[in-house]
Amino acid sequence: MIPIDLATIWAFIIAFAVFVYVVMDGFDLGLGILFPLFPKKHDRDVIMNSVAPVWDGNETWLVLGGGGLMAAFPLAYAVLMPALYTPMIIMLLGLVFRGVAFEFRWRTQRERNLWDIAFAGGSILATLAQGIALGAILQGVQVTGRQYGGGWWDWLTPFSILTGVALVIGYALLGATWLVMKTEGELRDRAYHLSWVLLLAMLGAIAAVSIATPFLAVQYTQRWFAWPNIILTAPVPIAVAGVTVLLLRSLANKYDYQPFFLTLALFALSYAGLGISMYPYIVPQSITIWQAASPENSQLFMLFGVSILIPLILGYTAWAYWVFRGKVNTESGYH
Fold first, then answer.
1. Domain count for the chain
2. 301, pLDDT greater than 70
């Protein structure tokens, strides 16, 4: 009988939850990032209406990922949270401002510009903080014994700033391709133009992060370039190149639906590359998933819960997107 590796199963569950959050919340954060580029009230109303039915359920996956990390890998949670207090607080404040602004901008005329600024600013802050936190984890966290051993500002480095800016560009591209898929007319044409610019910027960001990552630790270099690992890792950059060609073609031919899903494919490949670099460490170069895992009885008990919870969340989320599929009706409003 093949033994069940609960730690690996839970690592994939948490990775899945975080990726679904990136997919679900990435494009509406991207819309907030792009908000200042659409100064017309009508365009901003349409942008908001394009995500109004689905935006507030996306943070479910962030809660699932964070809660799962705390329950399944408590040691990793205890080490990573003190290391990332500042970017996490900034992220949560950004999400709060964005959420409040989303609701309040429809309730007022006089202060609407202030809420628009809060919506855009909150989206940019939340995205930048997420990217910085990712970079801080990837570059490694100082561990002393079984606790965080670094300083308050260790998360702030050139590499973490690079990953933060890269995520802002990536989410903006998701937002632009979402508008291509959901809108019509002049707004759609403007989104196509932005998609070209942001795609080139994202490819540059992916290249910059990919070049910088092997210099962070010798383990990353060996994982990607040592023989025979390169046989297994080479398909990732090849697939990125292939998806990029398809994405460029879809933008050139103005296929409304393909750019968004191909951009999601780029995110998936980048996420796979991150997983290849980190596995089996949950705190890179310091703590593996097995060292950080909670007792097997606890993991097994929680596994029964998520086996019901995740399909349920996926089901009602898919239903919501299906019901509100198609182009946005510019005459409709969010109330």
1. 1
2. yes
